[in-house]
């Protein structure tokens, strides 16, 4: 034994061999790590930047009419830039302005980050269901068990949201309690569902085996399985998320009991009592006539179109039904209208590849919300945006060329990017509003407002100079290279939602019922209202900026009319 040990010691003393051995081990370890990382990113290639986005605002272009502004006067027709003249500027600019280059880099970072996040496989958790039972006491709600999540007939569908990175049991419970729901259910480790009815089919505890994305060791359901908690006891501590909203005074239907599925007669009826009763029944409308409370949805019989004078409903509470007369008060409860919330991917690949194209800040996300709820199918995106996925846009994580979505969001322009699509809905918004919306998003996210410091910084004029030309070139490129276009103006969509939405749905070769469209109208805002203080009569545009933007407005208006489309709405007309 001693002899063998002596030989080993002598061998190790050979310094050159030992250094060689350590160096080789180090290189092998580094090579393995590099190969592993390369395998993840090799599948994602870079996407080119549209030439149209690199369009710079010239100081002076002879013959194009884009010279420096001459004061506050409205530009004459001689100053208008023709479509061809504006587009001729594109090829000469090989490198976009700082803002556009920064934005393209930002989009590439988003794609890369989301690609890595979704390709990682989840290891199965063998004892996860049992762990859920043990950790129940740590959460405030009462654990009801693991249930089957029937996608065809969901019971927990009053409110739905996702969080791929930070979902926890407490987060879901509190969100449902704020909305006055009785039950909170979690699935897939990242999805939260609220409702007042317990799922019917119970499953084995071990089938709920998905770890919560934001809480290691906690269970958030499983594949088609819900971890369900009762949260009614949390109501007192939870702040109410939304108040009851007054919708107006309307002529009552001839037969209220046939029109509305649930009703209550109460001698001392209040708006709060009626709203709470209807919320428990999971109806979005609370209708009051005298001492009668009715719950239901907007329908063809009662569409909430054409409201009456509020004076006709004054003093209606707690009077007899006969005295209540022909009119009724209508309130929106905190409950979501769920008739149009179920969505899915296309069962077969779409034969027509449709783009939902717009300049950033033009309402593309809101249009996707409307289309998804109207058609019942997810929309895709050229970009991977985690914030939007968390808002329920599941198409964000689907590859944009999968053809499993009804249409694909894009802000791209340029011949190559446009000709990939068979047809497109081109959404156009007033550039003044679009520029402000995109600047807000850049500094405060999808639902926030930029600070006063941001608006007064040098970044705002730089942003306008770069993005105003992009607004024009985006529309011009799609008019030039688009194969089949439906032009929708954001302002018209807001003003006449159902007619314009019908137009969009028909363009997508889909048919929808009137009740589903009314449901979309009832949920028209979704989760896309910006929060925080908005400055009234806020005007961040200088006269020089206005003169520049006005020229682009007139150019785009001329191009639209040249393609036999309706020109821009009057409110776009130069300020």
UniProtKB/TrEMBL annotation:
InterPro entries on file: P-loop_NTPase, Sialate-O-sulfotransferase, Sulfotransferase_dom, WSC_carb-bd
GO MF annotations in UniProt: sulfotransferase activity
SMART domains: WSC
Residue stretches making up the WSC domain: 140-232, 243-340
Source superkingdom: Eukaryota
Record key words, sorted: Repeat
The UniProt record lists the keyword NAD: no
Family that this chain belongs to: Belongs to the WSCD family.
Protein name: WSCD1 protein
Organism listed in the record: Asarcornis scutulata
Lineage: Eukaryota, Metazoa, Chordata, Craniata, Vertebrata
Gene assigned in the entry: Wscd1
């Amino acid at each position: 034994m001693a002899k063998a040990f002596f030989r080993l010691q002598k061998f190790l003393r050979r310094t050159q061999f030992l250094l060689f051995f350590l160096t080789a081990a180090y290189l092998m370890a580094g090579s393995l790590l590099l190969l592993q990382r390369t395998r993840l990113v090799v599948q994602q290639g870079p996407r080119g930047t549209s030439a149209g986005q690199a369009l710079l605002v010239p100081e002076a272009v002879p013959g194009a009419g884009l010279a420096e502004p001459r004061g506050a006067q409205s530009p004459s027709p001689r100053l208008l830039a023709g479509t061809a003249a504006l587009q001729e500027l594109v090829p000469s600019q090989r490198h976009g302005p700082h803002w556009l280059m920064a934005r393209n880099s930002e989009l590439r970072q988003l794609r890369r980050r989301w690609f890595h996040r979704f390709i990682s496989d989840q290891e199965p958790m063998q004892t996860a269901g049992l762990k859920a039972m043990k950790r129940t006491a740590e959460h405030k709600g009462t654990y009801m068990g693991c249930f089957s999540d029937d996608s065809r007939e969901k019971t927990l569908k009053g409110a739905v949201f996702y969080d791929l990175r930070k979902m926890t049991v407490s987060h879901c419970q509190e969100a449902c309690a704020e909305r006055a729901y009785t039950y909170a259910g979690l699935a897939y480790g990242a999805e939260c569902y609220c409702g007042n009815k317990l799922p019917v089919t119970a499953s084995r505890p071990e089938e709920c085996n998905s770890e919560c994305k934001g809480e290691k060791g906690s269970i958030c359901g499983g594949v088609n399985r819900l971890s369900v908690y009762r949260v009614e006891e949390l109501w007192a501590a939870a702040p109410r998320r939304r108040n009851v909203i007054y919708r107006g005074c309307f002529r009552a239907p001839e037969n209220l009991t046939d029109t509305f599925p649930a009703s209550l007669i109460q001698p001392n009826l209040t708006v709060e009592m009626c709203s709470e009763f209807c919320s428990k029944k999971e109806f979005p409308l609370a209708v009051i006539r005298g001492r009668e409370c009715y719950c239901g949805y907007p329908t063809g019989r009662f569409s909430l179109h054409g409201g009456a004078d509020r004076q006709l409903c004054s003093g209606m509470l707690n009077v007899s039904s006969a005295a209540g007369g022909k009119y009724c008060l209508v309130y929106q409860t905190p409950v979501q209208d769920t008739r149009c919330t179920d969505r899915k991917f296309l069962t077969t690949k779409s034969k027509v590849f449709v783009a939902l194209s717009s300049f950033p800040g033009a309402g593309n996300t809101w249009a996707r919300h409307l289309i998804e709820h109207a058609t019942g199918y997810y929309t895709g995106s050229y970009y991977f945006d985690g914030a939007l996925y968390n808002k329920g846009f599941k198409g964000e994580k689907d590859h944009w060329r999968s053809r499993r979505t009804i249409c694909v969001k894009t802000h791209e322009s340029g011949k190559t990017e446009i000709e990939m699509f068979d047809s497109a809905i081109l959404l156009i918004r007033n550039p003044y509003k679009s520029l402000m919306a995109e600047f807000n998003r850049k500094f405060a996210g999808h639902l926030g407002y930029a600070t006063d410091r941001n608006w007064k910084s040098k970044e705002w004029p730089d942003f306008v100079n770069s993005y105003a030309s992009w607004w024009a070139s985006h529309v011009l490129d799609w008019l030039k290279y688009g194969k089949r276009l439906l032009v929708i103006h954001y302002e018209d969509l807001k003003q006449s939602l159902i007619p314009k939405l019908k137009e969009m749905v028909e363009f997508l070769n889909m048919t929808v019922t009137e009740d589903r469209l009314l449901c979309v109208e009832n949920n028209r805002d979704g989760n896309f209202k910006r929060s925080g203080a908005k400055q009234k009569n806020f005007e961040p545009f200088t006269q020089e900026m206005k003169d520049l933007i006005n020229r682009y407005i007139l150019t785009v208006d001329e191009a639209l009319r040249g393609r036999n489309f309706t020109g821009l709405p009057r409110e776009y007309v130069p300020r």
